[in-house]
Amino acid sequence: MKNQNKYNKKIRKTGFFIFTFKFLLLNFFSILPATAAAEEPVLSVVQSQENTQQWTGITKRLQATGVNYCVVDLADVRSAADWGDRRVLFMPNVETLTPAQAIALEEWMSKGGTLIASGPVGSLSTPGVRQLLRALLGSYWGFSLNDTQQIKPSKDKMQEWTNQNGLFDKVHGGVVIPNDVTSQTAAVWNSKDNPAAVVTTERSTLLGWRWGTDVASTALDSAWLKAALTRHLTSRANRKNKVEGASPNCSTSSTLSPSSASSPPAPTIVTAPKPRPLPRVTSPTSPEAIDQLEQTVRLDVAPDSNAPIDTNEAIALQQELENLIGRVESAHLAASVDAANVANLQSLKGESTQVASTRPGAVISSKDQALAQARIVAKNLPQLIAQKNYALARQHWLATKANLWKQFPLDRRLAQAEIRAVWLDRGTIVRAGSEKGLAQVFDRLAESGINTVFFETVNASYPIYPSKVAPQKNPLIRGWDPLAAGVKLAHERGIELHAWVWVFAAGNQRHNEIINANPNYPGPVLAAHPDWANYDNLGNTIPVGQTKPFFDPANPELRQYLLKLYEEIVTRYDVDGLQLDYIRYPFQDPFAGRIYGYGKAARAQFQQLNGIDPINISPNQSDLWQKWTEFRTQQVDSFVAQVSQQLRQKRADLIMSVAVFPLPELERIQKLQQHWEVWARRGDIDLIVPMTYAQDTSRFQRLAQPWIASNQLGSTLLVPGIRLLSLPTIGAFDQLQLVRDLPVTGYALFAAENLNNELQQIFSSTQGKVEPATEPIPQRQPFKTAAVRYTALQREWKLVLQNDQSRISDLNNQAQVVQSALNQLATSPSASNLLAARATMTRFKSQFRVWTRQQAIDNPYQVKVWENRLATIERLLRYGERRVQLHPEG
What we know:
This protein is of the alpha/beta class.
């Protein structure tokens, strides 16, 4: 955000340096009498339970900063008025807010308040509160750094307000993760990949360290608070001196009065336009594992808001509209070349191409009209925004998006040969009640075109089948064997069934509630073997704010029990695969005092290896702490390898998959000790299923894109997860179309209980109605899938390029060579046929851009989609080389 106004006023620094507040609009000082300005605090500072022990250091640094302030006791906050009427609120190291306090903060900021926060703000709060704080700050504390790092200016966009002395020094902090298009990185850490240290929005600043403690110098703390304060006081977002409707009273026990401080009075706040509306947040209601991910919040576009749209947001809005246009066109092209719809080609090509009105809400009579209108709106958006016609820009954007969503061809088949998976959850299985009831569930899945089911088999240590290994079957299942029934029903319908098991999560308080057990019951396995339990640094088996006790992955007896249990599943039942869930430790943040992994076996093994009990290691001891983190990560890594090797010896055809978190690699290892890139590269698993759950398509793409583009996955197939809960039906389809346009082999839906009738009908039309025997399943038949997908690509090229014979002739000739090689490989898998297929693909790709040069100018999105699909075929060939037994000769 650019500073439109600057103040010029010198404030003498105590002890270290002189810092200058600059004021450009001195004529506004007449708003308040000089005496009033001299006596009134500049900001309110929040005191809470977490920062009480740090309060002496905080107040000393506030005095060194030289600004007047008053104190708000967090315990007294119950409404927006309780945050005080100062325009700026400072929240140093406050980790717990109640939902009421968070909602009050949102209301207070919507009235014009601005927020400066530091440290892991809200990290110990409930998931809904954490989400709301993410929205208000445009970022969140990701994870603590292992050691002291240098703060540097952001290379991407140097913000003018950070052009001050004393800001860029060393401090022991954490990585701040931006989570909104309007967020800007003001400073970065001088470490690998330069992660963010300070992130700002128009109404907030988040400092990535614990302000007022010994992790940073007084000079650094003072400099950053002064700079952030100046920025918010001079911001256009601050319209009035005080927040309307807020209480003028806050504690003055720590107020820096003119007589007791060495600094002059606080500056008067300049007027500015109406503050920008803040996003509203709906907390997730699903109790499953992904709720602990602290998902980013959806930022809705308010149609009537005339709040300013900055450059980043303008670019994002235009890009999202252009991408949606591309997805609609891509879906129509796929539908038009499907074998079942060849007869419709001429009618599709004959649709009207006249340009429709660009008036929002205008009736769109055809797909081509809708696309023409959308292109005009996308083109005109920057001009509307430059003219500050923000409300009209938002109205056009929303109306165009709605019109485009209506243009998806939902009544025709358009799906490729792909993995179409769904998690069949325990609740849906229990409600089925019998094999007959479960048959109805599988009928719906088969009609929807689903070809892979992750069947919840072990939940909170309870197997859903009568086990001879586990101490107790799930008490909600009586009189039947759901796993046996599921395997039978799935295979009768041409569907693969993969047993979905919880690995290191030992129990579940919610499940205890359902079965009327004690809330703190650790589950049947830990109840029988308490020595297998894991603990946090306070001795709790269930971490603060979470609901599940965990096993100690370092315990050899526990590992042998799990291996024996999984071996029972894959040998007694003809399951097609095994999916590992909760293959991790629970969430932690070491520098916030949230540490986990102190099981009895883990402590003993680590002490034997390193000569120290890990309970005595501080995160500040970087070398030892790194060893402790690596030790825990290795426990998970080695168990995945052990499961894969042992079970494949029993069932060579078994497909191994993992449900994992799409956090950045370093953050994930610090928080979860889940290093799934290693498992993929080693070939331990076949399918990586990242839980890329988001409420809008653009955010879903941002979550999935790093893993789609990753070169760290070896030959493993990537299958992004889509969460149906709270998604509008057409929004879910939009995410599916994005998956089909990206270089991945399919998707996984969470979960069967959210597959409503409307979505089932769309699935039936767009990806169902095909005999299973005629469509290969990628993880089972990768070479045949590659050939079938390539055939669909050829049909699209012929249709799109049929009017340009000079290009279509060369492309068709070489394309047919590739098709023949792929068909030969699918029919007779051999090393020589695989080599031939790869060679022809390589030659073809080297010329593809030449053949499609003009198309890349006319429709760059579609050409990129074709390239993505070629990349998917190459990945299928790599996967097939590992999974399919190749004959010695072609």
